[in-house]
Design brief:
Mean pLDDT: 82
Structural class: alpha+beta
CATH topology of the largest domain: Factor Xa Inhibitor
Radius of gyration: 30 Å
Pfam families: Kunitz_BPTI, Lustrin_cystein
GO molecular function: serine-type endopeptidase inhibitor activity
Organism: Gongylonema pulchrum
Strand content: 15-25%
Protein name: BPTI/Kunitz inhibitor domain-containing protein
Low-confidence stretches: 115-119, 135-141, 305-312
CATH architecture of the largest domain: Irregular
Helix content: 10-25%
CATH class of the largest domain: Few Secondary Structures
Amino acid sequence: MLFMFQISVFVNPCRQPIALPAQPCSTSRPCSAGTYCHYGLTPETTICCSLEGNPCDQPLVTGIGSGSQQRWYYNAQRGTCEMFLYKGLKGNANNFLSQQSCEHSCRPNPCAEGKHLTLHQIRFQILIILIIHGLSSHILELESFKKAISSGRPYSTPDGRYLSCDVSLEVSSCPSGYWCNPGATRHTAVCCPGAVADPCTLPVITGEGDEELERYYYDAATKTCRAFTYRGMKGNQNNFLTMTACEQQCQPLENPCIGQPATTAAGQVIFCSATNKEMCPVNFWCHVGATPETTVCCPGGSFFFLNSVIHFLM
């Protein structure tokens, strides 16, 4: 009697040797640290493989085999997730089931998705658009602005690339309704949606990311420009490369004092008036300037004067 036996031969789909038995994986069953889920064309070839560095830095590998399945990989040179056909075996970790999963892993959104916009700011920006562009083009501009707010994504060129920009330019290189995020690289220095007419009214946002970038913001409470550390992503327009750029945009309070004017515990400048000089704290006096903004409490008073006399006589 002749017996027929069917022998199942395991085919390793990974680029590197693996320990047996193979570890199956799926979107709901992730692999352990140091490995990634190789999504093959069959359940038998969907197993955990050794991870060889950052998946987003790895080159395109179409693999070997007779299969052909649509996948996505991150093109680091272009900064985009692009489609390719995977043959089923011997690929690498830069191999995603969808464009969305590729972008989530390798193409983070550096924009804050317009969360800082208030209804008042939106209405004000629309008014500015109507004034600048006139009634003839307002429909196109308003649609562009509405799209910018709703998308929450950087402006993309027709081929899918994020539009890089240069925040150091005096004239914005971004389309209407967008502003230039001052990121560290061309992949994060992109045009973000939700531009406002007056960035000086926005709060300081240190953002998210691994960068430590020296930037400047306008402090509306003290009416001065101050330094802060920006993380590279998810910030807002109150974010300038230099102190000079901040001061040119926001025109901080002119300090009429010799020294720093008095401030509250919250850091707000204390203003006074010719009829209410007594509101200045001890060792400060009311400097009555040409405008209310320069009528502030300056350091001095009797204690300051006495110290100055003693210093002069010594």
